[in-house]
């Protein structure tokens, strides 16, 4: 095209109201109710038995309850429509509050578990009392956690099936951190209960509190791992992760299929929220197009992209010459040959 470069941005005049994720909200509410009830029971049992593992598990449930509160905040605030101060909407608030949830797991759960474990190992060997209370509470807690875990698994399977991915693949690439957080929390909770049961049982059998302390430390390690996985995932989303590669390739193919397009020089995408994608394309249009024809083509292409890819929230099309050396250098520096990037390899 000509020497000048014009920018054409075609976003929606008013951002569409996004659903807060009715099923996601239900999943979080189930986890919140379950963890609150379990936390009270574990704290009671920990005080009665004097078990460090049970007290660590009580802290685990408190952390999970606080986490669910943060996730509910994420769901509510991320659904607000775009405005003057935030023209791309508030979708990333879900990632911010989910990141805080990961931090809360570490601060209020893992650290307390480590403190309880080290104090038990360093202190005098104490006799465990009323161990049956601990067994009863741990059994009830396991059954209750299964309710929340089953709901989380059911939703992940449903979402993975709709996305045509396996269970593990969906967890890896999902842009909805709320359900992923609940699933990992509940999985860690079930594993933590088994560890706590082993600690209480071995303490009861051997009379040595060392097993109780070790169990508390293992629960702390478990929570650190979960917090790290969730924190890393949400950090990537907050920084601005590329959209699903299948979406990117579909957008690339749609652009190339247009009669007015000769080549796609660059294609950038970024997740701006759950099921919300910002797309910027640098396109080499046919040189014979007039300014009016170019404008009409941009409007039509924008409409076709939105019709074919529902996740697209904002679309920017920029006419550029594909032979521009500076542009080509930037593209190659970022991810190599564009044709290879959208190929089948």
From TrEMBL:
UniProt-listed Pfam families: Cation_efflux
Bilayer-spanning residue ranges: 25-45, 95-115, 135-153, 182-203, 209-231
Record-given protein name: Cation diffusion facilitator family transporter
Keyword Transcription regulation belongs to the record: no
Main location per the UniProt record: membrane
Compartments reported by the entry: Membrane
A biological process term (GO) from this entry: zinc ion transport
GO cellular component: membrane
Membrane topology: Multi-pass membrane protein
All residue ranges annotated as the Cation efflux protein transmembrane domain in the record: 28-238
GO molecular function: monoatomic cation transmembrane transporter activity
Organism: Allokutzneria albata
InterPro entries the record matches: Cation_efflux, Cation_efflux_TM, Cation_efflux_TMD_sf, SLC30A9
Keywords: Membrane, Transmembrane, Transmembrane helix, Transport
Domain of life: Bacteria
């Amino acid at each position: 095209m000509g020497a000048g470069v014009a920018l054409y941005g075609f976003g929606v005049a008013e951002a569409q109201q996004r659903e807060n994720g009715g099923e996601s909200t239900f999943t979080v509410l189930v986890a919140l109710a379950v963890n609150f009830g379990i936390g009270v029971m574990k704290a009671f049992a920990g005080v009665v038995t004097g078990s460090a593992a049970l007290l660590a598990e009580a802290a685990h449930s408190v952390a999970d309850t606080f986490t669910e509160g943060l996730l509910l905040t994420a769901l509510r605030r991320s659904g607000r429509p775009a405005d003057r101060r935030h023209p791309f909407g508030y979708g990333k608030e879900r990632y911010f509050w989910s990141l805080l949830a990961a931090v809360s797991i570490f601060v209020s759960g893992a650290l307390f578990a480590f403190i309880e474990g080290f104090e038990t190992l360093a202190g005098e060997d104490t006799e465990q009392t009323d161990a049956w209370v601990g067994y009863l509470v741990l059994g009830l807690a396991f059954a209750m956690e299964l309710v929340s875990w089953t709901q989380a698994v059911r939703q992940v399977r449903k979402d993975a099936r709709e996305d045509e991915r396996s269970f593990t693949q969906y967890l890896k690439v999902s842009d909805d951190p709320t359900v992923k957080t609940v699933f990992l929390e509940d999985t860690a909770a079930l594993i933590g209960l088994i560890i706590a049961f082993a600690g209480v049982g071995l303490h009861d059998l051997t009379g040595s509190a060392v097993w109780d302390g070790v169990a508390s430390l293992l629960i702390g390690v478990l929570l650190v791992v979960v917090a790290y996985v969730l924190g890393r995932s949400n950090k990537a989303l907050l920084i601005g992760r590329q959209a699903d590669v299948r979406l990117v390739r579909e957008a690339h193919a749609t652009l190339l299929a247009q009669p007015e397009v000769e080549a796609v020089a660059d294609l950038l995408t970024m997740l701006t929220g759950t099921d919300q994608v910002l797309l910027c394309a640098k396109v080499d249009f046919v040189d014979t197009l007039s300014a009016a024809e170019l404008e009409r083509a941009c409007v039509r292409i924008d409409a076709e992209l939105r019709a074919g890819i529902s996740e697209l929230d904002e679309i920017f099309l920029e006419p550029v010459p594909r032979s521009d050396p500076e542009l080509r250098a930037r593209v190659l520096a970022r991810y190599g040959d564009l044709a290879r990037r959208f190929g089948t390899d």
